[in-house]
Amino acid sequence: QITTLINHKDKPKRSDKTLQAIQRVGQAVNLAVARFVTVGQAIADENHELKEEMDVACIEAKRAGETIAQLTDVASLYHPESDSHITIFTDKTGIVKAARLLLSSVTKVLVLADRIVIKQIITSRNKVIATMEQLEKVSTFQEFVQIFSQFGNEMVEFAHLTGDRQNDLKDEKKKARMAASRAVLEKCTMMLLTASKTCLRHPDCESARINKDGVFHQMRLALEQVIEIVTDSRSNGENELASISIYSGIRVFKNKVEGLRENLYFLSKENLSTMLEVILEHTEDFTDSAYTSHEHREHILELSKQAKMGLEQLFSVWMQAQNQKTKDLMEDLEVAILKMCQCMNELKRELHSAATSLAADLLTYHTDHMVLKALKITGVEGNLEAIAEYTCKLSEQKEQLVEMCRLLRHVSGTEPLEITCIHAEDTFQVTGPQIISAAETLALHPSSKIAKENLEVFCEAWESQLSDMSTLLREINDVFEGRRGEKRVYLSLPRPGKHNTNLKALKPVKLDTEEQAKIAKLGLELHLLTCEVDSETEKWEDEENKFVQHVQGMSSMAYSMYLFTRGEGLLKTTQDLFHQAEIFAAEGTKLASAFHGFPDQLHDDGKPLLLLESEKLIPMCQQLQMTAKTSVQGKSATFTKVDACIQRTRNVMTLLCQILPLCCRLLKKAMGNSCLKAAPPWKENRAQTGINVQCPERTDEMLGLKSLENHVTNMTFLEQG
C-alpha cells in the first residue's frame, strides 16, 4: 500500500475515482498501523524491561501512520478555500519521509518483539532443564509421577514456542535443524518416562542407569541446539556441515568450468585442480565402503579416472586459448567444457545410484525387524548369552544404517535434506546402544514388565526412524529427478472395511511434511491428554466396567489420531482420520449417557457438578461429528477439516480429564476404596505389550499402555457397534 502511494503517477487531471482510491489506501495504512501499535503496546506492558524502547517505537509508527492519513486526505481538493492544505499531490517528499519513518519504527517493534520471543523460548528451556534435574534425582515413584506431570506441561509450552519459531524461520537449514531437534525432544519425552521408571524399579541395575542417563544427555543436547538456532550462535563453532557434500562440490566445480566461456582468466589451474581433488576424495567414502556393490565401485573409479583426464584436456585447450583466441581454439574449449561437465554429471548419477540402491536394499532387508524381535524374546527368557549374540547383530545393523546415512548425505541435493541425513545418522548411533542397555536390563530382570515396556519404547524409536528413512529416500530421489517443490499426494489403496464406500469421492490423502509440522503442536497436546486420561482410568479396579471401557476406547482412538499427525499409526489417510473422529464422537455421546446412569446411590454434592460437566460432552461430540461428516474439496480445505477434527477431539479429551477425577472421588466416598486400586508404588500387572512398529511413544505403563492388538480390537468393536 505504501509503495502504491509513493509510485502513483502525477497527472494534471485526477478523476474522482483516483482521489477516493488514494484516500482509502491512506486510511487503510493508518488503520493497520493503529492495530499494529496496539499489539506492540500490549507486548510492552507484559515485558517491562523493553517497555520504554517499545513505547518509543510504537509512538513513531503511530505518528507516521497519522501523517500518511493526513497527506492522503484529498477531500480538501474539492474546496477552493483549502488550497493551502498540504497533500500527497502538493508535497510528495512528505509521504516518502513518513513512509521511511513508518518502516523504520515498524522494524524496531518487530526486532523488540523478536527479542521477547527469544527470551520466552530461553525461559521455557530453563524451566524444562530445571524440572529434568529434579526428575534425575527422584527416589520414589510418587514423587516421579508428580514431577513428570509438571515436566509434560512444560514440554507442551516449549513445543508451542519452538513450533511457532520454526514456522517463522526463513533459513531452510535452520528450519531443518529445528525440526530435527524438536523431533528428538518429542521422542525422548516418552523414552525418559520408561527409562526413569525402569531405573526406579531396579535402582541397583547399572544398564538401567546407563539407559536413563543416555536419554537425559540426548534431551540436553537437543535443547541446547534449539537455543543455538534461536539465538543464532554455536557454542562449538560452525562445524556441523564442514565436510562439503559431493553434490555441492560438483555443482560449484561445474559453475567454475562453465565460467571459462565468459572469462578465461578469472580462475587458476591450481584452484580448479584442487576442487576436483576434493570431490574425488569424497568419492572414496563410496569406493572404500564395504556396502558398495562391486559394480558401482568399478564405475565410480572409472568415472573418477575420466574426470582427471578430462580436466587435463581442458587445461591444455584452456592454456592455448589464453595465448591465442582463435575460433578453432574457442570451439575446442567449448567441447572440452561440455565433456568435463558431462563426465561430472555421470559421476553424480553413479553416486546417486550407489547410495539410493544401498538404502533401498537395507531398508527392505531390515523391514522385518528380526533382531529387535529376537532381543525382546531372549530378554524375557533372561538368556544373557543370546542377548550378547543379538546385540552384536544389532551393532552390525547400526553400522550399516549409519554408513547408509553418510552416503545419502553426499547425494541429498539440498542442505535441509543433508541435515536430515545427519539427524538420522545421529539417531541410529544413539538409539542402538540404548536398545542394547534396555535389553540387558530386561535379561537381568526377565519378569519386570516395566523393563519390557522400556525395551519396547527404544525398539519402536528405531523402527520409526527406519520408516522415516523411506520418506527421506523418496525426497532425495525427488530432488535428483527435478521434482523438488511439488506437493506429493499419497493416494492410499482402498482397504476392506465399513468406511470404504466414500474413498473414491473424497480422495483420501496423507498429510505432507509441511502440514504435519503445522499440526504437530495439536498432536502433542492430544498425546499428553490421552496419557492423563489413561492414568485416571488405571485407578479403577474393575477394568471390565462399561464406563471404563468407553473411556479407554476413546483414549485409544484419540491416540491413533495423534499418531496420524506424525504420519504414523493405523490411520493412513485423511478419510481414515475423519471416520475415526465420527466413531470417537459417537462413543462420546454414549459416554454422556453412561454418566447419567452413574450409581444412583451417590448423593454427594459433587454429583450435580458431574452431571453438569457431562452435559457438555453432547454438544462437543455433535460438533465433532458434524465436522467429520462435512464434505470438503481441495487440499487446503481438507487440511482445515483435519485441524478442526483434532482440535475438537482435544477439547473432548480435556473435558474427560476434568470429569474422571470427580468420578473417582464420588465413588470413593460412596463405596470406600473397593472400586479403586490401592495405588502400590509399582504396578506389575499391566497387559503385555505387543510388537508395535507404528507407535513409538505409546509404550508407557504409568500413563496407560495399550498394545497394538488391543487398539485394533477396540477399533473393530466400535466400527461393528
TrEMBL record:
Gene3D superfamilies xrefs: Alpha-catenin/vinculin-like
Gene: Ctnnal1
GO BP field: cell adhesion; Rho protein signal transduction
Organism: Crypturellus undulatus
Protein location: Cytoplasm
MF terms (GO), sorted A to Z: actin filament binding
Family: Belongs to the vinculin/alpha-catenin family.
Protein name per the record: Alpha-catulin
Keywords assigned by UniProt, alphabetized: Cytoplasm
Domain of life: Eukaryota
Annotated Gene Ontology cellular component terms: cytoplasm
Any Pfam family: Vinculin
InterPro entries: Alpha-catenin/vinculin-like_sf (IPR036723), CTNNAL1 (IPR030045), Vinculin/catenin (IPR006077)
